[in-house]
Design brief:
The complex is a heterotetramer of chains A (about 130), B (about 130), C (about 550) and D (about 250). Chain A has helices at about 5-25, 25-35, 50-55, 60-90, 95-120. Chain A has 5 helices and no strands. Classes of the chains: A mainly alpha (about 130), B mainly alpha (about 130), C alpha/beta (about 550), D alpha+beta (about 250). Bound molecules: flavin-adenine dinucleotide, iron/sulfur cluster, FE3-S4 cluster and FE2/S2 (inorganic) cluster.
């Protein structure tokens, strides 16, 4: 039986690694749509914007946004914090970790909250 | 038995520039830095959604058209793709797939996964945006 | 207290620690145990596991015939019976043996063995065996390790062993270890020779220490040459390469062994094969290269599959050190020094006759190898007799009171300190150690090599005597205490010269040809005069040779033809 | 015949004389099939008996002769001079370890880590040898064989920046060894070993730099072992989360 701390770490790492998959498979297209294609007018459809378009697909769109953003945020912050330690901030490692998790938690709560505001009916999913 | 050390030993410490010492390390560090873009984009986008949610759709869209943000995104995309590719490669390395007698090579996993990435991206555009 | 962290030393330590959990066992080793030279054994270890076609008598007979009837048959019988148990124990401890499809340990053919009975782990058995033993030894809390401590002498007082003196290489300080019983397992002494498969650390320290403590060395003239070494480096290409079907070819592409061992061909014993190669070389049927003459080892017909599955290390070595792919090209090989059949005399329980002193492994001579060891018997020997020596020492220790560090012993330790720091380390003018070492190696190679005769041996005895004198003035260049490998080398060379001398004198005394000992002036085996062991004692002047009977139980000496 | 000369630039550190390490150059006759270790031996025998380094087998299996050769951790007995021809070859002690003298590093920490992961078969009861061997299929052997071929040369530690930054990190070879036992069908010690490798300074410290596997001379691929250990740990933890409620 693994001790508690180790188990927690194992699970956090599992989430991190799922975040890696998400960031790899789903994030690029989102960046392209929202951050490049839309503002530069490469947008294939006249009118509207990608975020609205995605959200208009109710549940599945909302879910896509949540998963992509939360997963990427987790993965990115987790990793970035270890990058900083590698660049010489090793002494501050534990502090960096704490800040990292704080950002992750706040961020994920925030997307969840706002997405719920935008599409409250997600909750009624079975 | 604890051996006493009559004479000092020395140890070379890693300086902050260690990752420049060899090309593997440099590539690794670039991969590490992709996380910065992944994280920052996520944060910006969360902010955008919050603007959407609070009804300020126009300022949300204006934010996206901000040249600084566009520039950031243009840099972020290749970095994210780099992240994706190295991730695919590592997966291939760590969990090779056995088919009969031959085991898959990492670059094969990379190719398969790139194709998968294209299909998923296309599907997202088709299903979520265009339809 | 165990000296040596190779197969024999570790097995002894585990046996002692298991027997008596209250006993404090110390392993003193001049290198970290997993660096011991056991690590480089490639081919496999012999034991009768397949009782459907194999049995103890057959293994015993093969071993005795291989030894040219010089082996003590009671020791061999004991050995073959214990061998399977020891191998299974090793398997239980985690050794990753290669397996058959039904999950049993695989066996392969080996030179001089009449059936397949050599267990293997690809072609890195020594590596796996050593690491398995080492890692298993870590489990015992009553085993304490002194890594990188160099033992310099055995402390003997009042006819019994009280401990040893050793240098902590890291700090350079000499310390006395008091012990109720001591097992020495310091391995062979191949570095006496120029061209050897043995590692840098195989310098016969234990043999010389025991010899100086008054224990006789036995069968020292029996030096094994292995037929397949890479010509440039002396790296060994395992006998398993022939066991799996490899061929030896001369310049004319002929399998020349049909003239020497027609029935066994490549699976003949090592002494005969090495001499066959030498004959081919002498008679001009060998290749000439930058490192002298050589013959070819041909594995190409085995196919990539077999080579990769069963001989990966051979492939790695040939590729790395010769730039040759054995799947497509032939490997150049020539004979070179490989193993010492002789060593410290012990009985079948590893006891040397000096109360408190036990010995095991390549440095000991229970005499189960006689005049020629069969490949793959040695590792098993290390386990069987390592365990015996460990148990013997532990039982002896349990019967003993504490060792005393009274005046005589303290005096011995002080004397040793003076010898090392005041004489060896301080001397300022004289020859380099490397010069003397090189001359010794050359002397042994040229005069006490595969073929010997009266003249060459007499010369060797004289030359070694001179070198011993010159050694008294040799200079250790490094004067520091911390990690002084130069000092260690000097002490090792000092040991080697003693051992070399015993080999030369014993070889001179045995006026016959038997097993590995081939005298051109006495080409025949002479059972009437020499069916006995030669033992060498240290004296003030030259070594004194005595004899000991060979124990013969069931197998009468017969002509040795293959 | 004119002889080529190679320059070997070796780190010297003599704690009893010099406060600091420095470089010393030696000129060594160059032969095509000479390895760096041969050059060191040449120096020790002919030029400077005080040069200090470890070696034994000269065939890449004892693991003693590791050093940083031109900045990369290598076995000196398996690095040929011709790979570096025309340049000065820099030979330094393995990085990330403290140096006792010249090229000799302190192995205490590494040895301690090896012991820490309990590298032996853990079994409720060992069956007596008379009952014969434990059966193991070729496939079962294959699962851990690669990870059992580590020669403890420590090159991977010297290559791993994470170990360089944090000495407490259990590190590649030790984890690979732990994984070797975890995957061995004869072993029953998972419950004992998991907590050790999944400790804070265990597998999670590894950020997949992967250099350990690049420098490993024996194809152990510690990175793979670490990653697999992580996956085992994560699935194990998830299971233990789900189990009590899932009722399965
Ligand atoms: C290349 C090669 C291949 C071989 N292949 C096979 C094979 O396939 N099958 C087979 O059966 N046999 C084989 N052998 C033979 C076999 O490997 C050896 O005979 C056996 O390993 C010897 O083990 P050992 O424990 O006696 O000595 P070693 O393994 O040599 O150990 C000696 C130990 O003593 C220590 N020591 C030495 N001097 C001192 C000192 N002064 N102070 C403190 N410690 C000291 C060393 O540190 C070391 O730990 C092979 C040998 C070689 C060289
Ligand atoms: S894993 Fe490879 S590099 Fe690391 S110690 Fe083992 S053999 Fe050496
Ligand atoms: S180099 Fe170090 S970070 Fe991990 S993959 Fe290897 S242990
Ligand atoms: S000397 Fe043994 S590995 Fe290099």
């Amino acid at each position: 039986m693994m001790p508690k701390v180790a188990r927690l770490h194992a699970i956090l790492w599992g989430v991190f690694s799922m975040g890696g998959f998400i960031a790899a498979f789903l994030l690029p297209v989102l960046i392209y749509l929202v951050g490049i294609a839309y503002p530069l007018g490469l947008w294939p459809m006249a009118g509207g914007d990608p975020t609205s378009a995605i959200l208009s697909h109710h549940h599945i769109g909302t879910l896509f946004l949540f998963v992509t953003v939360a997963g990427s945020l987790y993965h990115g912050i987790f990793r970035f914090q270890s990058t900083l330690t590698e660049l010489g901030l090793a002494p501050a490692k534990r502090a960096l970790e704490a800040i990292g998790y704080l950002i992750i938690i706040l961020g994920i709560l925030a997307v969840a909250y706002y997405l719920l505001l935008l599409n409250p009916s997600v909750l009624s999913l079975p | 038995m604890s051996k006493e050390k009559p004479f000092p030993e020395y140890r070379r410490k890693l300086g902050p520039g260690w990752w420049l010492s060899n090309s593997h390390f440099t590539r690794y560090m670039i991969r590490e830095w992709t996380s910065f873009f992944v994280a920052l984009f996520s944060l910006i986008y969360i902010y955008e959604i919050s603007l959407f949610a609070s009804g300020a759709k126009d300022s949300a869209l204006a934010l996206m058209r901000n040249p600084g943000i566009i520039a950031f995104n243009i840099v972020a995309l290749p970095f994210t793709l780099y992240h994706a590719f190295t991730w695919f490669y590592l997966i291939g390395k760590v969990q090779p797939i056995k088919l009969g007698k031959t085991t898959s090579k990492p670059w094969q996993a990379l190719l398969v996964n790139i194709v998968l990435l294209l299909i998923i991206s296309y599907a997202v555009i088709q299903i979520l945006v265009l339809r | 207290m165990i000296i040596g962290g190779g197969a024999a030393g570790l097995r002894a330590a585990i046996a002692a620690a298991e027997l008596d959990p209250k006993l404090d066992v110390a392993i003193v080793s001049k290198v970290y145990p997993m660096r011991s030279h056991t690590v480089s054994a490639e081919g496999g270890m012999a034991a009768v596991l397949r009782t459907d076609y194999d049995n103890f008598d057959l293994h015993a007979y093969d071993t005795i015939k291989g030894s040219d009837f010089l082996a003590d048959q009671d020791a061999v019988e004991f050995f073959v019976k214990e061998a399977p148990k020891e191998s299974i124990r090793l398997e239980h401890w985690g050794c990753p043996f290669s397996r058959d499809p039904d999950g049993r340990i695989s066996v392969r053919a080996f030179g001089g063995m009449s059936v397949k009975r050599t267990l293997f782990a690809t072609d890195k058995i020594g590596f796996h065996l050593l690491h398995t033993l080492f890692q298993t030894s870590l489990k015992f809390e009553n085993i304490h390790r002194y890594d990188e401590w160099f033992t310099t002498s055995i402390l003997v007082d009042n006819g019994r062993v009280d401990g040893v003196t050793a240098i902590d290489i890291r700090s350079g300080e000499l310390a006395s270890f008091l012990a109720k019983a001591v097992v020495i397992a310091t391995g062979g002494c191949g570095r006496i020779y120029q061209f050897t498969t043995n590692g840098w650390i195989k310098t016969g320290d234990g043999m010389a220490m025991a010899y100086r403590a008054g224990v006789p060395l036995k069968d020292m003239e029996m030096v094994q040459y292995h037929p397949t070494l890479l010509p440039n480096t002396g790296i060994l290409i395992t006998e398993a390469a022939r066991g799996e079907g490899g061929h030896l070819l001369n310049k004319d592409g002929e399998r020349f062994l049909k003239k020497y061992v027609p029935n066994k061909m490549e699976l003949g014993p090592r002494d005969i094969l090495s001499r066959a190669e030498m004959t081919e070389i002498k008679e001009g049927r060998a290749f000439e290269g930058p490192y002298g003459s050589y013959v070819h080892l041909d594995l190409t017909h085995l196919g990539a599959g077999t080579i990769e599955a069963k001989l990966p290390f051979v492939k790695e070595l040939a590729e790395r050190y010769l730039g040759i792919d054995p799947v497509h090209e032939m490997i150049p090989v020539r004979p070179g020094q490989h193993y010492m059949m002789g060593g410290v005399h012990t009985d079948i329980h590893g006891y040397t006759g000096l109360p408190g002193l036990y010995a095991a492994g390549e440095m000991a001579c229970v005499s189960m190898n006689g005049a020629n060891r069969l490949g793959s018997n040695s590792l098993t020997e290390c386990l069987v007799f390592g365990a015996e020596a460990g148990i013997g020492a532990a039982q002896y220790a349990a019967r003993q009171g504490s060792p005393n560090f009274g005046n005589p012993v303290q005096g011995l330790a002080l004397e040793e300190e003076k010898r090392i720091y005041d004489r060896v380390l301080k001397s300022e003018r004289g020859e380099k150690i490397s010069t003397i070492r090189a001359e010794m190696q050359k002397t042994m190679e040229e005069h006490v090599g595969i073929y010997r005769d009266e003249n060459s041996l007499k010369q060797a005895c004289g030359l070694i005597g001179d070198l011993k004198q010159r050694m008294k003035n040799a200079v250790v260049e490094d004067k520091d205490r911390v990690y002084n490998t130069d000092l260690v080398s000097a002490l090792e060379l000092d040991f080697m010269l003693d051992v070399a001398e015993t080999i030369a004198y014993a070889a001179l005394a045995r006026k016959e040809s038997r097993g590995a000992h081939a005298r051109t002036d006495y080409p025949k085996r002479d059972d009437a005069q020499f069916l006995k062991h030669l033992v060498v004692y240290e004296t003030e002047t030259v070594p004194r040779i005595d004899t000991m009977p060979v124990s013969i139980t069931r197998w009468k000496p017969e002509a040795r033809v293959y | 015949m004119s002889q080529d000369i190679a320059t070997i630039r070796v780190t010297r550190y003599r704690p009893e004389k010099d406060g600091k390490p420095f470089f010393q150059d030696y000129k060594v006759p160059y032969r095509k099939d000479m390895v760096v270790l041969d050059a060191l031996n040449y120096i020790k025998a002919n030029l400077d008996g005080t040069l200090t380094y470890r070696w034994s087998c000269r065939m890449g299996v004892c693991g003693s002769c590791g050093a940083n050769v031109d900045g990369v951790p290598k076995l000196t007995c398996a690095s040929f001079l011709h790979e570096f021809k025309g340049r000065t070859i820099k030979v330094e002690p393995l990085t990330h370890f403290s140096v006792i003298k010249d090229l000799v590093v302190n192995m205490d920490d590494f040895m301690h880590k090896l012991v820490e992961i309990k590298p032996w078969i853990i079994k409720e009861k060992e069956s007596p040898p008379e009952e014969g061997e434990y059966r193991q299929s070729a496939e079962e052997l294959e699962r851990y064989a690669q990870f059992s071929s580590c020669i403890n040369c420590m090159l991977c530690y010297s290559a791993c920046p994470v170990y360089g930054l944090n000495e407490k990190f259990l590190g590649p070879a030790a984890i690979a060894l732990a994984y070797r036992y975890i995957e061995d069908s004869r072993d029953e010690g998972k419950d004992v070993r998991f907590p050790i490798v999944h400790e804070l300074e265990g597998v999670w410290e590894c950020t997949l730099v992967g250099e350990c596997s690049v420098v490993c001379p024996k194809g152990v691929d510690p990175m793979l072992a670490i990653q697999k250990t992580k996956i085992l740990g994560a699935t194990n933890a998830l299971k233990s989360l789900v189990m009590p409620r899932g009722g399965k």
